[in-house]
Write a structure and sequence with these properties.
Length: 382
């Protein structure tokens, strides 16, 4: 049995509402430290997951296994073995591995045939030691941040192989397969007014969207609502993914989350620049605060202060203010509430089942707001 079955959590069967929600956030490639942009997405998804659980059956699907076959990941693994040999990655920090990733992205791309053994091994559950090291370090950050761990170190293969996923697309009338003449495979949503999008190269390498389809095509029909959380710069691909999954029956909600600028600039992690700004460094800087205040304060800053867009640059002083504000909120939290938590969470929705993390979290920062309820803090933010 895969880990997916274990992720179906929510109210007891006697009180179970009808709605079934699948949260499917974009994954972070385990090749570098967690940047402020990564933290924003992770904290946003965590609050959505935990706040929606009292209202619906929620599945949080986040599988690194699914996305290992991408060229970005396999190419990095091949680069490490070719340039580093038998390195003991357990002795390296995530910054060390991130520096190697920057070097990989600056180097020429490996030949396709060099990646095939890695692709075959990844399909059978093998993970490069460098990636395992990064995921292990991230597990520690998750624990300190109070993030739900959806299975960082578990083998969680997608429900469909690549060929089966392409066959499913063909059944939906949305696949242009030119492999028989040595060409690529495209997603073909043109009858819906959307452009072609390549999924598989002529030499058989799938991209991120192809991997997402392997994951979500067999899952979507089992849910009433599918929520896609992703970097806003990926919006064209996620519009396509929404179109495909909608044909399977569920309501599909796209939730783009803006990156966090550093000194006014959006920086890709492939170029580095995370020194003193990644999750480990920020947690180290917050070590003087109570663990609960760190968990709440990080959510106040990355969700309520930064908001869903990408207008505000990261500011350490505002993060420190949020940590202090979190301490005061925890000190004044009300232990008793006359209304059930689910009843108080429901207004933070619109026409969707999931709870909006921004609306909920920003509500804690109003100047004249009543003291927060302790059950809300412990259930959703801590």
């Amino acid at each position: 049995m895969t880990a997916l079955a274990a992720e179906r959590t929510g109210p007891s069967p006697a009180a179970a509402p009808a709605h079934r929600v699948l949260l499917a956030p974009v994954t972070v490639t385990p090749s570098k430290p967690l940047t402020p942009s990564h933290l924003k997405g992770l904290l946003w998804t965590d609050v959505m997951y935990r706040a929606t659980r009292p209202l619906a059956h929620v599945t949080y699907r986040y599988s690194h296994t699914t996305y290992h076959p991408t060229e970005q990941t396999l190419g990095f693994w091949e680069f490490l073995d070719r340039t580093r040999g038998d390195t003991d990655y357990d002795d390296l920090t995530e910054e060390d591995i991130g520096d190697l990733y920057v070097a990989f992205r600056a180097a020429p791309r490996p030949a396709p045939h060099a990646l095939r053994p890695y692709a075959e091994a990844a399909e059978h559950g093998w993970v490069h030691p460098a990636a395992t090291r990064v995921l292990t370090l991230w597990s520690g950050h998750y624990a300190r941040l109070g993030l739900h761990d959806p299975g960082l170190l578990r083998h969680q293969p997608p429900g469909l192989g690549l060929d089966a996923a392409l066959d499913r697309l063909a059944d939906l009338g949305m696949c242009l397969d030119q492999r028989a003449v040595g060409g690529p495979v495209h997603l073909d949503p043109t009858r819906h007014g959307l452009p072609l999008r390549r999924l598989v190269t002529p030499d058989g390498r799938p991209n991120y969207l192809a991997c997402a389809l392997r994951e979500l095509l067999p899952l979507a029909a089992g849910f009433d609502e599918v929520v896609l959380l992703y970097d806003g710069e990926l919006d064209p691909d996620y519009q396509l993914l929404e179109r495909v999954l909608t044909t399977l029956g569920p309501r599909v909600r796209r939730v783009p989350i803006g990156r966090v600028p550093i000194d006014g600039q959006i920086r890709s992690a492939r170029h580095g620049g995370w020194q003193d700004l990644h999750a480990g460094a920020l947690l180290k800087a917050a070590a003087g605060h109570d663990p609960a205040a760190v968990r709440l304060g990080m959510r106040l800053y990355f969700i309520a202060v930064l908001g869903p867009g990408r207008q505000q640059s990261f500011r350490a002083d505002l993060l420190a203010q949020c940590l202090r504000r979190a301490e005061r909120l925890l000190e004044t939290a009300e232990p008793e509430q006359p209304r059930p938590l689910a009843e108080r969470l429901a207004p933070h929705r619109k026409d969707h089942t999931y709870v909006d993390p921004y609306r909920l979290t920003a509500g804690l920062l109003g100047r004249r707001r009543a003291a927060p309820a302790l059950d809300l803090l412990t259930t959703v933010f801590l």
